[in-house]
Design brief:
By secondary structure, the chain is an alpha+beta fold. 40% of the residues lie in helices and 16% in strands. The strands form two sheets. Strands 1, 2, 3, 4, 6, 7, 10, 11, 12 and 13 form a ten-stranded antiparallel beta sheet that branches. A three-stranded antiparallel beta sheet has the order 5-8-9, with no helix packed on it. Helix 1 runs antiparallel to helix 2 and helix 6 runs antiparallel to helix 8. The longest helix is centred in the C-terminal third of the chain and has 28 residues.
Length: 349
């Protein structure tokens, strides 16, 4: 479940582990801006604070500046409304699931932008193509999966190709290998197809299968690490429903294949209880299915398991669409499958 706008404000105000007097005043301002009654605020605040980390205070008031900037950004209503429409339109390009739509609408509606977002999604009002968005709408971008800048409408010049093994290949006549600002270590390489490879002398351990869209597990892993890191940077939890006080380390993520299953593991810091490396897996066979958590796990462990599994699902749903957008294509991905160290898709117009 995505946070409400007020819960996001709480996270910013308490981001240093403490609430200053200025932070408390700004939360009052936020309540007024959002039109929350005292009762509505109390319900959200009590729920959020009851689960807040009990870590020692690191400093006093470091979150104030972040919260202040966010509040100031919320005052630009005209720009926010236009951006919400454009974000709704862009969400259709990268793919919008029912759960993402529900969470995004809830958050946008809390800001008074629900109708604008819906207008962009359903194209009821003219929406400009999304180039960027105000930082005040960063949480909405995360919920919608717009974690990277959407390509500009101006023509993108094809990057200079270098020699190297391909770790991403797109077999489409109109696909172009452009530079990826959201993953700069993955660069265009010489190939008969549209292709990218890792900087340096990285060598693919197996030959890529012949399919319309093919990318190596190492690219999925890099994307997963970026997704988790970006959530941290936006003040969100690294994993969905991660218990408060727990932290995940995106750089520790590992990905393994077992038949049609992809298994992810990641180090989680349990605070006083030390470090652990939980895991979760999904089955990839024409579609993506989360494998259930082992029986007997406690509630918090099930949350961590499901959060890890959802990271894989999110990565496998968003990465191919971002690659196709970068290549200048508006195609759809179908029939996802795994083949040794590769993920494959068919493309449909």
């Amino acid at each position: 479940m995505a946070p409400t706008p007020f819960e996001h404000g709480l996270a910013l105000a308490w981001s240093d582990g403490a609430l200053s007097r200025d932070g408390a005043i700004m939360l009052e301002t936020l309540q007024q801006q959002l039109g929350l009654s005292d009762k509505e605020r109390a319900v959200q605040e009590q729920s959020w604070l009851s689960d807040m980390s009990k870590n020692d205070r690191r400093s006093f008031g470091d979150g104030d500046q972040i919260l202040r900037e966010w509040l100031e950004g919320l005052n630009d209503r005209e720009n926010l409304a236009s951006s919400a429409r454009s974000m709704g339109r862009a969400a259709l390009d990268v793919g919008l699931s029912k759960s993402a739509w529900s969470n995004a609408y809830q958050f946008a509606n809390g800001l008074g932008l629900g109708e604008e977002l819906a207008s962009g999604v359903w194209l009821e009002k003219e929406a400009e193509k999304l180039v960027s968005w105000p930082s005040a709408l960063d949480p909405l971008a995360i919920i919608l999966g717009l974690v990277i800048s959407v390509p500009k409408t101006t023509p993108i010049q094809q990057a200079e190709l270098v020699e190297g093994d391909a770790f991403v290949l797109i077999g489409h006549a109109d696909a172009k290998s452009n530079s990826l600002s959201w993953m700069p270590e993955l660069i265009p390489v010489m190939n008969e197809k549209c292709a990218w490879g890792w900087k340096g002398d990285s060598k693919a351990s197996t030959s890529p299968p012949e399919r319309d869209l093919v990318y190596c597990n190492s690219v999925v892993l890099a994307w997963i690490r970026r997704l988790v890191a970006m959530r941290h940077q936006r003040g969100e939890s690294g994993l969905e429903e991660l218990p408060e006080g727990f932290q995940v380390m995106p750089s520790s993520a590992e990905l393994e294949r077992d038949g049609n299953n992809l298994k992810i593991s990641m180090i989680v810091d349990l605070g006083e209880n030390g470090l652990v490396r939980p895991w979760a897996s999904v089955n990839v066979d024409q579609e993506i299915t989360i494998n259930p958590a082992p029986e007997g796990l406690g509630t918090n462990w099930v949350k961590i398991h499901d959060g890890l599994a959802n990271v894989i699902v999110t990565a496998l749903e968003t990465l191919p669409k971002q690659l196709l957008l970068a290549a200048g294509l508006q195609a759809n991905c179908t029939n996802i499958s795994v083949h040794e160290g590769w993920i494959t898709h068919d493309l449909s117009e």
